[in-house]
Design brief:
heterodimer; A: about 575 residues; mainly alpha; elongated; B: about 450 residues; eight-stranded mixed sheet; two-stranded antiparallel ribbon; 12 helices; about 15% strand
Chain lengths: ~575, ~450
């Protein structure tokens, strides 16, 4: 039975369709400084990069039982130019989704309700990177307080209190032993590590003061619960690395920190009791223990949902929530269709990550789609098409991610296509390349379609012909122009209002004609899979990789490739990677 | 009404009476703290000054924005015509330039005009571009200088939710405390109403029931501060700064609870407005703006805060204007050919909304005048003209009477490539912030715009 339930609903404000200041830049001849000089193909990996893979994942370096984990995945940490150097560790604020999943897991779905929280800030492509920089504003502190009391009140109401507290107070007002046991036990789950004795004293003190003032054990305990949920030890993941480590740039994360890292990566939620128990036994700083827990988490359905979040961020799919189109282009764009567009991509990805097919690159060339009626119509499928999984016909000019309505519609204007936006997306999201800013004081209006310049290719000619424009625009426009058979909503068209479409182009020297051939080139291009590996790494470690991490990145890319581009191999490799298990001193 | 005999420290009085127990206190015992006609705030000093920012994305059409003559009695240009009912309260500053650089269109203008400091690019190789502020935005500079422990340190209002979320904090937020440290706005008038006038708000004359849970909430926040302090000791400087903000935010929340507990009698101009409905979406911009303008005016009148900002539309904002039949504003500025009549129409619409804000403030009687008399308001955008991402001849309005500090009636002053930070320094001084210089790097200045000041 096809799954059409919307699994991912961005609980955040509407976003404009991914419009940036570099869209549709038309460069006035001769009036510019050149911002697009020098090397514009960014990213540490170039096609001719000869750095070899640096070795497979070894098993437990120190044997079982005790001892800190040894760095060894890159096979080269003894110094020298290729030694792995971790990036500075940083506090990671819980994202909205992580907060919601966490309270669901701490309190149970019956207690946890939808809560009003401050939205996440994306940075360099990922919310998790933003979360490693963001702060708690005064209005966020208000919201966290309100949420904390709402949860505490419900968890301690007559229905839920017995199970939640776990001990029965000896008197109506005070019972220091029960309060202490509760704070210790709940605190361990809330802070994702055992509380220090100072911390236990602090929160027992809060509880007893309130219990005394209010004359009620449970009403007073609400204040301790609320406090624990407002503490930075709850709101932030303090994965800082072991203080006593020998090298400042290679501090292993301790067992509880690894529990958090693993759990938020694979479940986007707080560690469960079993994972905390494994941490208590010192199992997570050794690869066998870490791998065993990773397998357990991956087998749980929560992993698929959590990884949907990764793919949504990686491919900027959250912009779909606020997609708008002119009625002349498409009338009837509603939330159901937006969800369908999103789920089409996520369900397709799942087929290549958790499903029957295993080559992740095939996301670019697959004809698989997941549709409901409006989406089927946009795909040009017959009205009788059943909802669910379909395979687009072989003759279809539409293949892979670049043929998905989600991609085509999100990277276009309300009324017309945008080859520049579509090309920018491929460069940034599929090839991990940066596009420089448009030069300042550039007049950016394209000529309107006219008999001398009827198609987008004609109108974008100035981009291609002006020296100041072309160095950046040749990166983007040709890619987008190969997709001109798909209009602003992603519907196929044989021509553009009667004008024939020239969809030829070249991707960094390799020629193609049309979207299918372009997609095939991207399939074969090592940069595409390297980019996917980088993005998973970034998401897992909450920063864009630094030069010192190159050995780890190269190892991941190598492992991904030699596995036949199995996404789950990549995922396991990230978990075992030095970058996931070591950090440097915070700056 | 009893004559005012002594200046009492109200907070000390209240704490002594009420700490730890639930007591209902009738407010009339505090009447002695109002002046005879009950309109001035209890300290007996002059009415406080209020600071505001109104910000919209994508600039203006300079040809239709800049008034054709300078000085007092300047003629309202086409784009400024909507301000005719409040013209006396508005000065126009033109011919000034952003001097903090133009690293990236929209980003640079936004950061430059709001903070007088350069932007920080966050552009690692191979990742999507982002930027953030390097210094606090001017609303937070003012908020930091206000010694009073008000219920809200500042109020951040958002009107159009169609902001750019994929390029860092600069394009998404107006108010910043520092790098990667924004104050996100509230977009829903109904949520804003609950925050301002829900439980915890006492209307004039209302007997305040003191709730022991308020003090307990503060004891929880004390414990949280203890946790922050303990965690901070283990952190590097970047993370320590983030914890400093967390600490600051917890203290702000404590002040809020204290303000509820102490419940000073609100000024007589204070009255809870009607609760607006829950509204979001670009097709409701007029209604949302009106609702937020009323809420802001009443929050100021009730002295719940003295600093506010309105992010009407975001930098690079793709806000659509269905009420006037226009689509994506940012696209229009870059796609519309010729004289861009649609871009012009959108700018006029935005100025109509700004006029509504000023009219709402003017409509609240205070003392012998109105609330707008005591306001200092900066209105500007993220570029001069969206078309070219220009930052010269920047569109700047200064509104309000400034408690007597701003020229009234307003004037049109035209500079000659003058530093826009001069305006920022002028406004800070008009708010009695003790500074003789402001800004960073190219945005640094010690000069002010005397033409818009009374002294």
């Amino acid at each position: 039975m096809p799954k059409l339930v919307l699994r991912y609903r961005p609980a955040v404000d509407k976003r404009q369709t991914r419009r940036s200041s570099s869209a549709l830049a038309l460069c006035v001849l001769g009036a510019l400084s050149s911002a697009c000089s020098g090397s514009v193909i960014a990213g540490p990996d170039s096609p001719d990069d000869g750095v070899p893979g640096l070795g497979a994942v070894p098993t437990a370096p120190g044997g079982g039982g005790g001892g800190a984990a040894q760095p060894g995945n890159t096979g080269n940490t003894g110094g020298g130019p290729l030694a792995f150097q971790a990036a500075p560790a940083a506090l990671r604020k819980l994202t909205v989704r992580q907060y919601q999943n966490t309270v669901r897991d701490l309190f149970g779905a019956d207690v946890a309700r939808p809560l009003e929280l401050e939205p996440d800030t994306s940075l360099n492509g990922f919310y998790s990177i933003g979360a490693a920089k963001s702060t708690v504003s005064p209005s966020a502190a208000e919201k966290f307080e309100t949420a904390a009391y709402a949860l505490a009140a419900r968890a301690l109401d007559a229905t839920h209190r017995k199970d939640f507290v776990g001990c029965t107070p000896a008197s109506a007002t005070l019972d220091t032993k029960c309060t202490t046991d509760f704070v210790t036990r709940f605190g361990l789950r809330a802070f994702r590590r055992p509380l220090s004795s100072d911390e236990v004293t602090r929160y027992v003190g809060v509880a007893e003061k309130a219990q005394t003032t209010l004359g009620d054990f449970y009403a007073g305990l609400e204040f301790a619960v609320s406090g624990l949920l407002q503490s930075p030890s709850f709101l932030f993941r303090s994965e800082l690395g072991a203080a006593g480590a020998a090298t400042a740039t290679l501090r292993p994360y301790d067992d509880y920190e690894m529990a958090s890292r693993l759990s938020f990566l694979l479940w986007n939620s707080t560690p469960d009791s079993a994972l905390l128990a494994a941490a208590a036994k010192g199992e997570l700083t050794l690869l066998p223990g870490l791998s065993a827990q990773a397998e357990r988490l991956l087998a749980d359905p929560r992993a698929k949902i959590a990884l949907d979040d990764f793919h949504t961020e990686r491919l900027a799919l959250d912009g779909l929530a606020s997609l708008e189109k002119d009625k002349a282009v498409y009338d009837g764009l509603d939330d159901a269709l937006r969800s369908a567009m999103l789920n089409d991509v996520l369900d397709t990805i799942e087929e290549f990550t958790f499903g029957a097919r295993s080559d992740f690159r095939e996301l670019l060339t697959t004809r698989v789609a997941f549709v409901e009626s409006k989406l089927a119509a946009l795909y040009g499928l017959p009205a009788t098409t059943a909802s669910g999984r379909v395979e687009l016909p072989e003759a279809s000019k539409r293949i892979g991610l670049l043929g998905k309505v989600a991609f085509l519609a999100a990277n276009a204007h309300g009324d017309v296509t945008s080859p520049t936006l579509r090309g920018k997306y491929v460069r940034e999201r599929l090839l991990c390349q940066s596009i420089p800013a448009p030069p300042p004081n550039v007049v950016t209006v394209l000529p309107a379609p006219n008999p001398n310049a009827p198609t987008m290719r004609d109108r974008l000619k100035t981009h291609a012909e002006s020296a100041a424009c072309s160095s950046c625009h040749t990166l983007m426009d040709p890619i987008g122009l190969s997709l001109e058979h798909f209009d602003a909503i992603g519907r196929y068209r044989a021509d553009d209002r009667g004008h024939a479409l020239d969809t030829t182009g070249a991707l960094d020297g390799k020629k193609y004609d049309g979207a299918s051939e372009l997609s095939a080139l991207l399939f074969d291009d090592p940069r595409t899979s390297a980019c996917a590996a980088r993005q998973l790494y970034r998401y897992a470690v909450a920063h864009v990789e630094t030069n010192g991490e190159a050995p780890a990145i190269e190892a991941l890319i190598e492992q991904f490739q030699s596995s036949g581009y199995r996404f789950n191999t990549l995922l396991r490799a990230v978990i075992a990677s030095d970058g996931f298990r070591y950090g440097a001193v915070g700056e | 009404m009893a004559p005012r005999s002594t200046r009492l420290a109200r907070r000390t009085l209240l704490r002594g009476m009420l700490y730890g127990s639930a007591v209902g206190v009738a407010l009339p015992v505090l009447d002695m703290m109002l002046n005879n006609n009950g309109t001035a705030l209890a300290e007996g000093g002059p009415l406080p000054k209020r600071f505001g920012v109104f910000f919209w994305g994508n600039g203006v059409r300079l040809k239709q924005w800049t008034p054709s003559a300078i000085g007092a009695g300047y003629p309202l240009s086409d784009e400024l015509k909507p301000l005719s009912n409040v013209k006396d309260y508005v000065s126009v500053v033109s011919g000034f330039n952003i001097k903090t650089g133009n690293q990236r269109g929209h980003h640079a203008g936004c950061v430059g005009i709001l903070s007088g400091a350069p932007m920080i690019s966050q552009a690692p190789n191979g990742a999507p571009y982002a930027s953030t502020f390097s210094a606090p935005s001017i609303d937070q500079v003012v908020a930091s200088s206000i010694a009073d422990k008000l219920k809200f340190r500042s109020l951040e209002i958002g009107i159009s939710k169609t902001v750019t979320t994929g390029e860092g904090s600069t394009l998404r937020y107006l108010s910043h405390n520092g790098p990667d440290n924004p104050n996100p706005p509230e977009y829903n008038p109904s949520t804003m109403f609950t925050r301002l006038f829900g439980s915890g708000f006492s209307a004039p004359g209302q007997a305040k029931l003191v709730d022991p849970k308020l003090a307990l909430r503060r004891s929880v926040l004390d414990a949280v501060q203890g946790d922050i302090g303990a965690l901070k000791r283990r952190l590097g400087s970047n993370d320590a700064r983030r914890m400093d903000q967390h600490l600051e935010s917890i203290r702000t929340l404590e002040n809020q609870i204290l303000a509820i507990e102490n419940a000073p009698p609100p000024p007589s101009s204070c009255a809870a407005p009607a609760a607006p409905s829950s509204m979001l979406g670009d097709k409701y911009l007029t209604t949302i703006n009106d609702a937020m303008a009323s809420l802001a005016a009443m929050a100021l009148a009730c002295d719940q805060t003295r600093v506010f900002s309105v992010l009407f539309s975001g930098s690079v904002g793709g806000t659509a204007y269905p009420e006037i039949g226009k689509t994506n504003h940012h696209s229009l500025t870059h796609d519309e050919p010729g004289d861009q009549p649609n871009v012009h129409a959108v700018t006029v619409f935005i100025m109509e909304r700004f006029a509504k804000l000023l009219e709402a403030l003017k409509g609240v009687k205070e003392g012998d005048g109105n609330l707008l008399d005591s306001c200092v308001i900066l209105a500007s955008s993220d570029t001069a003209e969206g078309l070219a991402h220009s930052i010269n001849d920047y569109p700047i309005l200064v509104a309000g009477g400034g408690g007597g500090a701003l020229k009234h009636p307003g004037v049109h002053f035209r500079g000659n490539g003058t530093n826009t930070s001069d305006v920022l320094l002028t406004l800070l001084q008009a708010m009695d912030v003790k500074v003789s210089e402001f800004g960073k790097d190219g945005g640094k200045t010690t000069s002010t715009v005397a033409a818009i000041r009374t002294v």
